[in-house]
Amino acid sequence: MDYIDTKHVAAELRNRLRTEFPGVKFSVRKGTGTASAWISVYWTDGPCTADVEELTRPMQGSQFNGMEDRYESTDNTVTVTVKGRKVTGKPLVDGINTHRDVSDDALKAAAVLWSKAHDGIEPPTGGMLAACVVDGHVIQENWPPQQMWQIASDVVLPQRWDAAKEQAAAQAARRASAHEAADEGAEGLNLQHTAEDGTTVTGTRLGDGAADVLKLHGFKWHRKNQYWYAPGSRDQAADTGFLAAVAADLRAEDLTVTTAQPEATPSA
């Protein structure tokens, strides 16, 4: 059986985290010295530790048995890319530590929730705070910083992460719909405007002439989302005159364009 070096496992883990939790910045570090077979993962807010460990646990080749003070081998295998070649083998990883930080913004939101649960009074800065219930979650008796941290971890961050996932799913659905609409057109071009994505064009093909037209109108290519977008158009009302001009110039290149916004009628 092949053995996968810790650094290659760390690189693969970094890619999987990026794919599984888009929008969250992870720091994945390989240990040094006696900890060279360990990996540490750091991030702020976002998913809970349990969700991240669902991804990290299968990538450990060993686990520490504290009762017997020794490492025990797992049956895990991992597939990684090494110099452009897929390799499957046993990961040379003794353990993966996870560290989620809580942002100051989340702690401030936690303090607001604590205040609402206590008739509007500000959280004390000292002394032990009694146990309480915040948004249906039991918050243990603790010092103020620890209570704010628990509220942020148990209430604020899960709510924010659920909202972020719903937003990402909605954006993915809109993009899929836009691509389907583009595929139905003769040349596959779809010009649309939404508040969240701004003015975008999907369905272009290499060499179809659309790129030169779009660049003249200030569009830029979004490599990750694979569409053209007009900078500064997000969270703005649709500029129907701009949409009409772009559509007209694209059609002048014998391209078929469908639009998701009504085009402005040029004045006489």
From TrEMBL:
Organism: Streptomyces fuscichromogenes
Pfam families attached to this UniProt entry: LPD29
Domain Large polyvalent protein associated: 4-103
Name of the featured protein: Large polyvalent protein associated domain-containing protein
